[in-house]
Automatic annotation (TrEMBL):
InterPro entries noted in UniProt: C-type_lectin-like, C-type_lectin-like/link_sf, C-type_lectin/snaclec_domain, CTDL_fold
Source organism (scientific name): Eleutherodactylus coqui (Puerto Rican coqui)
The protein, known as: C-type lectin domain-containing protein
Domain C-type lectin positions: 107-231, 252-366, 406-533, 555-677
Pfam families xrefs: Lectin_C (PF00059)
């Protein structure tokens, strides 16, 4: 027996006759074992099943052959080097077993899961404060050295409903940046977010946080206050949960979390599989579960390419794929792992491959194709919800962002009328991220219909206008598969629309018209308009380049402002005039529908909104902009004034009702919200170029108390004066 850090090692010195034992994995040649590595002081990271290790620089490797499995070995004949040998070789080996610790109050509130453990500190600290707090509790800021650690971290943050927390990685400020774990362990795995690590924080030490959505890492200034995750100095139990859920799976099944996984190697159609209660087709909800399944199907020695049914199906033949669990649809899919050019058609069922593209998903015919089955059973009666984290549908969107009540997100169209210039795909994605958003993903048919209607309404179905969305195949690790920039799963057969003979067309666009082929693939360096998307309830940031001004709503060449404070008609007309606009006219049925939809969304109950009609012009026959009334939507036709002027007492002003859209009229001194309209376009980007001397404009900061609007400033004096003194 050798004792070291509460672990026991057993060494077997004779050759093993059992082929099952001989293929353990961490064996060696001649006198070889991981134990001897430890004795000679060369073992930098303990080798255990499912863990990672940093290999010494002196490792020697034989060529890899796909048909043979190779395992690490150690030669103790004097060179102290590592080699690879066929895993079927019969060699001595060493085992390691964790000792069961004594109960201790120190670990009372810690969470344990397989080989990982930790505890969330629910007090916001800087990174150094968080590290010190972990030390006081007998632990260390968490190191993430395996996929098991990464999965545990995501589950912990999700369980505690925390969006971000410190982990134990940091780098001190110097000429070179080297990230290290605070517990001194080797960095054997990294899981950075896109565009990370961002080391442009000048003069600052760099510390790393983990994000709840996917567990990926982000560089933050170490002074930022965040929650943090501690881990104990060692794991008291090996593979047993501390919450008492130590229930085993059936023979030949594998447990992972609260589920058991197995395979049925019979070739069957999908319809036959769903009728077999002994092997329910598996759902796959995240990358960690996918990694486990890849390992599971790799353990099945099957000649040639084989396929396994999973529970994903286009049930309604609409192109939208959903999970089918216990015969019921689960419309929200949180993770996908499609093969290249997939999903390839509507109405199919999904298999994953065990061949060259191991674990990748393909669409096959539900009735005519036969495959093996991947099975998944919950240990408890109820399966966890499959829905990913989304915005709250009851939350409102920020001004200038659009949505519908049944959607989880808000959307904003950035079009050239309000921009300094169009952008490339990456520039557009970066500008969306400046708001805390991403280029729009279309995760289901409802979102697709909404964006289609939004663009068609705004731009009259102009076929020439194309907008960047988040669909792309720029990620080298995606192996030519299309994906969304915000990480949303691809659940519809968009690839059919994205087909292009040009391999450089790697980014997706959406056209502003109805009909087929609204989506198209273009070169990512093309300059286009774009659409951003953000979850409901998330307040968009205000980037430095963005002009936060009146929330104008663009519709077919005009801007509209829905001024929701009550005022009499004259005051409403003054407010609109101040904003270089007038109280709105309504010229046709489409404009009527647009305005009615907007005020219905904004109003609480029945509400009246001023429109630009007053009966002083032949009894509501002309708009306030002097144009003729050619479209009306009166609830009751108003009287006409023929060849006579009206008194102030007789003056009536028109309004539109939010619930019905009918027009009517009332005393102009009544107080209602108003709708302003102008064809003047206001840019939402600040101009950072040289000042145009042909225009008397200068940029600067308004003095205190002054109001800015449209390159003008104003101040309101509180003291009363006669007109001559006021000037």
């Amino acid at each position: 027996h050798l004792w070291e850090s509460r672990r026991v090692y057993w060494i077997v010195s004779s050759c093993i006759s059992s082929s099952k034992s001989a293929a353990f994995g961490s064996a060696g040649s001649t006198i070889m074992s991981a134990l001897l590595l430890h004795i000679t002081g060369l073992l930098s990271a303990t080798l255990m099943p499912h863990t990672s290790a940093e290999l010494p620089k002196g490792i020697h490797s034989t060529p890899w052959y796909h048909e043979k499995r190779h395992c690490g070995t150690y030669y103790a004949g004097g060179e102290y080097k590592w080699y690879t040998s066929e895993c079927e070789s019969k060699l001595p080996y060493a085992c390691k077993k964790y000792l069961t610790p004594r109960p201790h109050d120190l670990y009372k509130n810690w969470k344990y899961q397989t080989q990982s453990s930790g505890k969330l500190q629910k007090e916001e600290f800087s990174w150094s404060e968080a590290s010190a707090a972990c030390h006081r509790n007998g632990g260390e800021l968490m190191s993430v050295n395996s996929l098991a650690d990464a999965e545990f971290l995501v589950d912990l943050l999700d369980h505690e409903n925390v969006s971000e927390a410190w982990i134990g990685m940091s780098s001190t400020f110097s000429d070179s940046v080297e990230f290290q774990w605070s517990d001194g362990s080797a960095v054997t795995l990294t899981s950075w977010q896109r565009h990370e690590p961002n080391i442009n924080l000048e003069g600052s030490d760099l510390c790393v946080s983990a994000q709840r959505t996917d567990g990926n890492w982000k560089v933050r200034p170490c002074s930022k206050k965040l929650f943090s995750v501690c881990e104990p100095p060692s794991i008291p139990q090996r593979f047993d949960d501390f919450d008492g859920t130590n229930e085993p799976c059936a023979e030949n099944w594998v447990r992972h979390g609260d589920y058991c996984y197995g395979t049925d190697l019979r070739d069957q159609t999908f319809l036959q599989v769903v009728d077999d209660s002994s092997c329910p087709p598996a759902t796959i909800t995240n990358r960690f579960e996918q990694a486990l399944i890849n390992s599971l199907i790799s353990s099945k020695i099957i000649p040639g390419d084989s396929y396994f049914w999973i529970a994903l199906q286009d049930i309604n033949k609409t192109g939208e794929y959903m999970w089918l669990v216990d015969g019921k649809e689960h419309p929200v899919v949180s993770f996908t792992n499609w093969d290249i050019q997939e999903p390839s058609y509507n109405g199919g069922c999904v298999v994953l491959s065990s061949g060259i593209n191991k674990g990748r998903w393909k669409v096959k015919d539900c009735k005519g194709f036969s495959a093996k089955s991947l099975c998944k059973k919950p240990l408890r009666a109820e399966e966890k919800k499959l829905n990913p984290q989304e915005g709250n549908m009851d939350e409102a969107c920020a001004p200038s962002w659009d949505t519908e009540s049944h959607l989880h997100h808000c959307y904003r169209v950035f079009h050239h009328e309000k921009l300094m210039r169009k952008r490339t795909w990456q520039e557009a994605e970066d500008l969306c991220q400046d708001f805390g958003a991403h280029l729009a993903s279309l995760s289901n048919l409802e979102e697709k219909r909404f964006v289609e209607e939004l663009l068609f309404t705004m731009f009259k179905g102009d076929r020439k206008r194309q907008f960047w969305i988040g669909f792309n195949k720029r990620n080298p690790s995606s192996e030519e598969s299309w994906e969304w920039s915000d990480g949303s799963p691809v659940v519809s057969s968009f690839w059919l629309d994205m087909h292009s003979t040009d391999d450089s067309n790697n980014c997706g666009t959406y056209r502003a018209h109805r009909g087929h082929r609204r989506l198209a693939a273009l070169n990512c360096n093309a300059q286009l308009e774009w659409i951003c998307k953000i979850p409901k309830g998330v307040i968009p940031k205000n980037p430095d380049w963005h002009i936060k001004d009146v929330p104008w709503v663009f519709y077919q060449g005009n801007n509209y402002c829905f001024y929701d404070l009550n005022a009499d008609f004259a005051s409403a007309e003054f407010v609109c005039g101040w904003m270089k606009s007038g109280v709105t006219s309504i010229l046709n049925r489409a404009e009527q529908a647009f305005i009615h939809k907007r005020i219905k969304q904004m109003s609480k109950g029945k509400q009246k909104w001023w429109i630009g009609l007053v009966n002083e012009y032949e009894g509501f026959q002309r708009w306030r902009d002097r144009s003729s009334v050619i479209f009306t939507n009166w609830e009751k036709d108003p009287p006409r004034n023929i060849n006579r002027s009206i008194t102030e007492v007789e003056k009536q002003c028109a309004y539109i009702e939010s619930d019905t859209g009918w027009w009517s009229y009332s005393d102009c001194l009544s107080e209602n919200p108003a709708i302003c309209k102008t064809n003047v376009m206001f840019k939402i980007e600040k101009h950072y170029g040289p000042v145009d001397n042909d225009h008397d404009q200068q940029s600067g900061i308004c003095p205190e108390g002054w109001l800015y609007y449209a390159n003008k400033v104003a101040i309101f004096h509180e003291f009363l004066h006669v007109w001559s003194n006021a000037i």
